[in-house]
Amino acid sequence: MSEPWLSTLKTDTAQAGWELAVKMSRMGVKVTQPSDEVRKRLRGIYENDADSLIASSQVIAINFQTIAAANGYWK
Amino acid sequence: MSEPWLSTLKTDTAQAGWELAVKMSRMGVKVTQPSDEVRKRLRGIYENDADSLIASSQVIAINFQTIAAANGYWK
Amino acid sequence: MSEPWLSTLKTDTAQAGWELAVKMSRMGVKVTQPSDEVRKRLRGIYENDADSLIASSQVIAINFQTIAAANGYWK
Amino acid sequence: MSEPWLSTLKTDTAQAGWELAVKMSRMGVKVTQPSDEVRKRLRGIYENDADSLIASSQVIAINFQTIAAANGYWK
Amino acid sequence: MSEPWLSTLKTDTAQAGWELAVKMSRMGVKVTQPSDEVRKRLRGIYENDADSLIASSQVIAINFQTIAAANGYWK
Amino acid sequence: MSEPWLSTLKTDTAQAGWELAVKMSRMGVKVTQPSDEVRKRLRGIYENDADSLIASSQVIAINFQTIAAANGYWK
Asked: Do the interacting molecules here have an ipTM over 0.85?
């Protein structure tokens, strides 16, 4: 499978947790489409499609749920 | 990545938590499409599309789950 | 942002909780499309579209998860 | 809003909980489209559409999560 | 409603839990489309449609969340 | 049903948990479309479709929620 990239779910801040959620969402795409070239081409499409952007935001939201729980919500 | 914008998940009220959920949903779009101009153009499309609006409401609902849990449901 | 409308997640009954979930789902649409006129027009479309109705039911289900947890499932 | 129909999330069995999840999913449609006649007509469409059926199954699954948690998973 | 089929969420193994999640996902389709004949016909369509297959996998994932929690994750 | 493949939700690391989430997402497709040949053909389609890739990432995110919870978030 892909190169290891996920060493921990712990982050120092909520901001860093959210950025990890963004990364996880992108890695979920990359594991299915490993070609940087193809993903770059597709990016030109979906970044101009409102529904794709909303769907992307949803995947980030789901990953953020996991990370926030893992960090006790940074309380 | 983007400018830091998420300092905490804690909010004083349920209303403020819901507004943070709206912001998180929008930031999830912005991280994929950073151009204010493009997002403004797309907004003209999806704000007139029932399915896009329902999908947006769903992303807010998912983010609100996280924020509500982080705040112990403001009990 | 919008007028405050969410003072608490606590409700006396499961029924009232479910009705709050319906309201939250609608407010998630309204925050993106604030025009009553436009929403009314769109309503004429999605209330006659099976997939839109199923999607609406899903948003209610997600919001209800949050409210039910906030109320200890009204046990 | 609609006639009260949800008195409790407690059910005696997992089967009854699942049936309540089905009912909740349908009520989520009915609250947006109250006309029995329109829903009946739409039913003729979505019950012959694979994607609509899969989406319906998903809404039931989400509602069942809530009900199962409310019942301590009937342990 | 349908014949009872869900007696318990407890399973001996994670594998059996996953198989129950598959069954629940299919029963969520069957409750809306009870005809074996129609479902068989639709199956010929969605089993050759990538998006339908991904959506099916998602419903299984949601049902598995419930079953895994009900079994204390088989620890 | 399919050959047993899920012996445990426990993994040593977050990375291994994420890889299990990817596997679970694929098995959710395979259980509906068991033919390696058909899945290979469909793969050629969805790996070039931005929305399919985002949807795949979402299924992984949902499965990862379950696995992360099962492992106490690898704390």
From this structure: yes
